[in-house]
Amino acid sequence: MPLPPSVLHILLALADADRHGYAIMREVQTLSGGRISMGPGTLYGSIRRMLEQGLIEETDARPDPVLDDERRRYYRLTSHGRNVAAAECDRLADLVAVADARKLRLAGGAL
Amino acid sequence: MSPDNGPPKFARAMLRLYPKGFREAHGDEMLQLVVDRRAHGGEGPWKLWPSIVVDTVLSAPRMRLANLATNHRILAVVVALLLVAAFIVFPLALLPIVLTAIVIFAGRRKGSPWALPADLVDTAGRWLLGAVLAFAIGVTVLIVDAEGPDQELSEIGWLLWFGSWVTAFVFASFGTILGVARFARRVTQS
User: Fold this and answer.
1) By CA distance, what is B32's nearest residue in A?
2) Per the domain annotation, does A35 fall within a domain?
């Protein structure tokens, strides 16, 4: 803690569904409003570290029949990863609350 | 997957810049990601390829350094200390550049503290990398530093500077010739 932005976004992308690399990349783009676009090296570098840290794990399920291919591996959040993501989001929420109290946010809350 | 929509050679070439272990674990997935982006991402080549090059340039060296620090701790510490010392002594960072070339060429000896990661050894790419690096570094140093150090140096300092300059010259010549020759031999043998 704090988590790197790429790690947090991947955790968020996997919070509601198991996804493969390309789906994670697309979801991260959507979640960040297009501000974060991960290339293959950044994405799989983060995935490798997250696998080592037990934040995510591979799954044998193939939930995306449209984009299915044997090369694709699907990843899902572990319970540890879900706890870490929740803790990080709480930390960020606390920070935002402080920012609100000190009137540091822009009108509309977006940069 | 048909050959037409498979990963292009360029993507495979970029993949070789990553550590071997990482390539083996995630290489196929990374190539598949490129295929997906070409097929479904709606990105033109003018957007796709520059972004992949930038991503590779930023992430591959970081992984290799992390690999080095994990698997070749002595080498990483020695190189790091020498780099820091060299940056202090030589404003043009001449010595670290030469040291980089030395590491590339001296890293063949398996088991020694200077050994490079296994995925860099005994490959044609290593020799081409060494040749390009030595040539670029040597020529840059020779051009930039040809008029001598931009500050007064003691005799020992001047000798060190001159020695590094000569070493750069030797590496630029020797490294390029040797690297290209080895690369050509390995390519023709394979």
Assistant:
1) A71
2) yes
**In b/e form, how buried is each residue of B110-139, taking b as 16+ CB within 10 angstroms?**
eeeebbbbebbeebbebbbbbbbbbbebbe
Domain range for A85 is: 5-101
Q: Is residue A29 in some structural domain?
A: yes
Query: What pTM value is reported for the model?
Result: 0.60
Structural domain tally of chain A? 1
For residue A109, being part of any structural domain is answered with no
- Kindly list the residues from chain A whose CB atom is less than 8 angstroms away from the CB atom of residue B33: 21-22, 25, 40, 43-44
Who among B1, B25, B55 is closest to A69 (CB)? Answer: B1
Residue that has been written with the tokens 């995306």 in this structure = A64
pLDDT truncated to tens, each residue of chain A (111 aa)?
Answer: 688 888 999 999 999 999 999 999 999 999 988 888 889 999 999 999 999 999 999 998 776 666 566 778 899 999 999 999 999 999 999 999 999 899 887 765 554
Count of C-beta atoms within a 10 Å radius of residue A37: 15
Q: Is residue A48 part of a domain?
A: yes
Cβ distance A44 to B52 less than 8 Å, yes or no, reads no
The chain A residues in contact with chain B (CB within 8 A) are 20-22, 25, 37-45, 47-48, 67, 69, 71-73
Q: Which residue of A has its CA nearest to B11?
A: A40
- What's chain B's Rg over C-alpha atoms? 20
Cβ atoms within 10 A of the Cβ of B84, count? 11
Task: For residues B28 and A72, give the distance between their C-alpha atoms in angstroms, rounded to a whole number.
Answer: 8
Is the confidence metric ipTM above 0.85 for this complex?
Answer: no
CATH number at residue A57: 1.10.10.10
- What is the C-alpha separation between A45 and A66, in angstroms, rounded? 26
Which of A22, A30, A64 is best to mutate for the B interface (most B CBs within 10 A)? A22
A47–B33 C-beta distance less than 8 A = no
